Amino acid sequence: MNFVAPDVNYYSMLPFITVLLTAVFATILPFYVSRKAIAGLSAVGLLVALAASIGLWNTNLSSFYGAYRSDNFALGFGIVLIVGALIAVISSVDVAKRGGTMQAEFFAILLYAVSGTMLLASAHDLIVLLIGFEVMSLGVYVLSSFQETAKSEEAGMKYFLLGGFASAILIFGIALVFGATGKFGLEAINTAVLSPEFKNSSIAAVGALFILIGFGFKVAMAPFHQWTPDVYTGAPTVVTQFMSVAVKAAAFAGFLHIFGLALQNVSGWQTPLQFLIALTLMIGNLAALRQSNLKRMLAYSSVAHAGYVGLAVLASPSQGFSSALYYLGIYTLMNAGAFAVLNVLSKDDDGLEIESLAGLGSSKPLLAATLTFFLLSLAGIPPLGGFIGKYLIFSAAASSGYYGLVILAALTSAVSLAYYLRPIGLMYFRPRVTVLPDFSGRSTRVLLVVCAAGVLILGLVPNAVYGLLELVKK
Amino acid sequence: MNEFLHVFIMFLVAGGIGVLALIVGAVLGPKKPSRTKLMAYESGNDPIGSARERFPVHFYLVAMLFIIFDIETAFFYPLAVSFNKLGTFAFWEALAFVVLVAVGYFYILKKGVLEWK
Amino acid sequence: MVETQYYIALAAILFSIGAVGFLTRRSAIQMFLCVELMLNAANLALVAFSRAWGDLLAQSAVFIILTLAAAEVAIGLGIIVAIFKKRPTTNVDVLSSLKG
After folding, report:
1. CB B7 within 8 A of CB A202
2. Does A4 reside within a domain?
3. ipTM of the predicted structure?
4. Cβ–Cβ of A202/B103 closer than 8 Å?
5. Rounded distance, CA B106 to CA C30, Å?
6. What sign has the CA pseudo-torsion A127, A128, A129, A135?
7. Predicted model pTM
């Protein structure tokens, strides 16, 4: 038997390899250079990966016989993930300012997690996808227990135990799907399902349900969301920022890929997913209403947003993929921006009482203005990006016939106005009661303005960017 | 829906066995605790001190590192068996793998995890 | 030759024992062991399916999953040790400072 060297195209993996190499250097170098230099190195590595992703746009390279693909879907998600990680790296500078500890390993583990998320977004094979999923998860478990406070350790423990449970369910689901089809490649699975001699549809359906549970956990869909508020509150704010945007975006990339490319012709998961989405929309938005802590409120709001993006998984891949990517890109800017404001305003990682925001509009106009931007966009007020994102996803789901869910999503979105507008009202129409610290450095202030501008531009001229994403369609 | 049924029944039975094992153990198991029975089992010797004595954390660290490097070795067995057929490509790939593992090794070495104090 | 469905039934039983154990146990270590049991149930299913399809790919997948499990053990034990160094038991119910 002759050995045939596998099909490896290093160019197609350029962004991924860049991030991985940066992570390796960030592992070794802290013994020799300062923590600040590592932060700089991480930022440079991420920027190079960003440039590489943009350079590869439209080239459609693939590697490992199509198991790893740098198509526009993967590159678009890669750009979103890198931006999310960059925002976390910049925000981490402020943590040192307020006297918090941020060990040098933070950057290495963050970058390893980012490499996992990128692998997850590019994978067209269940095993490659699983490796990306686990590298991402393992990195984030460590990050969320990173500070030696009781809360942070508790968050890490909860996340790890429940996350391990969910991964085990996902892996069993993958085993069942392989058992039903005999294939790991996403397109090959679909071909096997469609072939006339396919007779294991029940095994495939059970496997799909298991995979649904695994991903439902990772993107925080009710009723698998219980860890979310605790972990998001307990983890260091910068880590929560990263988790709420990059991990969610990457998990959705895998979610969309599996259910859009491999299992769309398997029956039995669509109805449960509709229930999950309906439950997520209601629980996320209603629970966020009664939170008094801003960090916890944002945690529940991120559960609710998982419900909106979940609609894109139900929609047909041709519309669902691009609308989910557009939404998650905007979501990364607005949610990471809101967490960045929260990070510079709080003296530790316990978050901030919403009441204490009163009067911020006059005392810290820039922070108040950008936070207002992000919250309005999260609420989906036109002309900000959040509105366009929601509109695209709702119309994608509606054109696939899920009118009931779209109406529910619109109604709960209206409910969400209550908790998004309350901090804004407090900031501008109430006198100041507590004096909040302000740890924002110049880089963070620039970052906030850039994020706010991005949210506005993506909302005002959606066609400029969404036109590019049309190419994402399969 | 009919074809789903037997799979679900299989999972019900499987889950039932799991629950049943726990219940039967709790209900039927004779519970006549005596001092000797509750004593920690130490191969026939009388236990000395508390069984909850704490190991130095160091012990866990080394155990964890063992697990990692142990598994990494497992990848080399298939490589060793088919190395002659795989040629230079596999050599360079394996080298890349070893370098990545070595980075981890370098890290723990620098952190002083392997020094017994 | 033993039929594939018996292996799958065994895998399903192992998986269910792990899942039920995870949900009923309260010690972090035991919960973690249950997760490992579930992972190995998946491995068993993969190996059985691999033989049924005559495809060795799934067996190499088992290799990868074993590695993932080892990495999970290392990280999990790290977190468990870090947390319970400061607390008297490994019972997860003591971890209740985050609520709401």
Report:
1. yes
2. no
3. 0.94
4. no
5. 32
6. positive
7. 0.89
